[in-house]
């Protein structure tokens, strides 16, 4: 759940754990006061406690985004 203006749109970020990583790009929400959920991909979590890190990847045009939270949804396995 993040907020970003048009100047920050397209900046890359990663969400990673000890054994999994996904990459996404910031989409503009209009400004830094309007938050919206933006899918970032899938992570594989191990049993027990996991450390999840969200960080920029590559050079930024401006600040990355205001991040309100990260939501994890379970995905059923095939």
Helix-strand sequence = EEEEE
Distance between the termini: 28 Å
Number of strands: 5
| Inertia-based shape | elongated
Question: Cα-atom Rg, whole angstroms?
Answer: 13 Å
Strand order of the biggest β-sheet: 3-2-4
Sheet/helix structural class: mainly beta
Taken as a percent bin, the fraction of beta residues is 15-25%
Task: Please give the count of helices.
Answer: 0
Oligomer status? single chain
**Mean pLDDT across all residues, rounded?**
92
Low-confidence stretches: none
The biggest beta sheet is recorded as: 3 strands, antiparallel
**What is the percent of helical residues?**
under 10%
Note the topology.
Layout: E1 2-3, E2 12-16, E3 21-25, E4 53-57, E5 66-67
Antiparallel strand pairs: 1-5, 2-3, 2-4
Structure in a nutshell:
The protein has 78 residues and is mainly β. It has strands at 2-3, 12-16, 21-25, 53-57, 66-67.
Textual characterization of the structure:
The protein has 78 residues and is mostly beta strands. 0% of the residues lie in helices and 24% in strands. It is built from no helices and five strands. The strands form two sheets. A three-stranded antiparallel beta sheet has the order 3-2-4, with no helix packed on it. The chain has a two-stranded antiparallel sheet with strand order 1-5. Strand 2 and strand 3 form a beta hairpin. The mean pLDDT is 92.
């Amino acid at each position: 759940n993040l907020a970003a203006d048009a100047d920050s749109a397209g900046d890359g970020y990663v969400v990673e754990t000890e054994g999994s990583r996904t990459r996404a790009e910031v989409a503009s929400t209009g400004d830094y006061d309007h938050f919206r959920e933006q899918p970032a991909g899938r992570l594989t979590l191990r049993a027990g406690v996991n450390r999840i890190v969200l960080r920029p990847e590559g050079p930024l045009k401006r600040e990355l985004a205001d991040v309100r939270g990260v939501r994890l949804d379970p995905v059923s396995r095939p």
